Amino acid sequence: MSRSLIGDYIDSFRNPGFWIYSTWLELATKYRRSRLGLFWALCPALIYMFGIGGFFGYLQGHSAAGFIPHLGIGYVLFRLITISLSESTTAFQGHASFILDGRVRLTDYILRVVAKAMFYFVMALPAIAVALVISPTFHPAGLLMSLPAFILVVLNIGWMGAIVAVLGARLQDVHELIGSILMFSFLFTPIIWYADQAPINTVRGMIARANPLYHMIESVRAPMLGEPIEQLTYVYLAVLLLGGWLVASFIYRRYARYVPVWV
């Protein structure tokens, strides 16, 4: 029986008990025995933002107060996307026993991965708040534009996660492939560099703007820091969202039925 990706997502949100509780249980058991507890979820963001951010800002001749929020916001968004996509490749294999027992609403397992990535994103928000406070270019009004852009990023994660999850159930090498692609894409995403350092009319600028993560991160970060957003970014994200959900819906409807056999 063919399944609808959007229909399954809607059902998962209507009945969130499984993926929310299992995510909470995993995180609770992971941190409860640690003396510092949830601080370890915040620690990577602090080190990356204020350690590496200050270091790279100095190397490139930027002020720490201006470069740290630029790098920090880019980092936590990049981590949200990469954790979601990388772990989605093994989401079905990791829950093979549930799937074989008849729990075939596969979006539950994708949402479990995204919920875990969202937890780490939320835990990094205090560090982001500190970075924005010290930023000389922080625009509080820009938060109103960043919120819908963030929702757009999450919607894109939804269809991307569905595609790599189905492919990962069929081909185990997809996990390694996606990991390598995401690692490579870091270099072409404006996290440790500014977008204006790769002008659109240059080869390196065109290569960077072919990267979806470039536009996803810029759309959220730029309004908060008073940085300009290219019109291309809005067009790119609109096409990516519509085209991505169409492709993901087709793949899910066509191949989701085979996941219990593949896992």
TrEMBL record:
Subcellular location: Cell membrane
Keywords of the record: Cell membrane, Membrane, Polysaccharide transport, Sugar transport, Transmembrane, Transmembrane helix, Transport
Short name of any one Pfam family annotated for the protein: ABC2_membrane
Chain segments annotated as transmembrane: 38-59, 71-92, 113-135, 147-167, 174-195, 233-252
Keyword Membrane found: yes
Residue ranges constituting the ABC-2 type transporter transmembrane domain according to the UniProt record: 22-224
Membrane topology reported for the UniProt record: Multi-pass membrane protein
Record keyword Cell membrane present: yes
Assigned protein family: Belongs to the ABC-2 integral membrane protein family.
Protein name: ABC transporter permease
Species of the source: Stenotrophomonas capsici
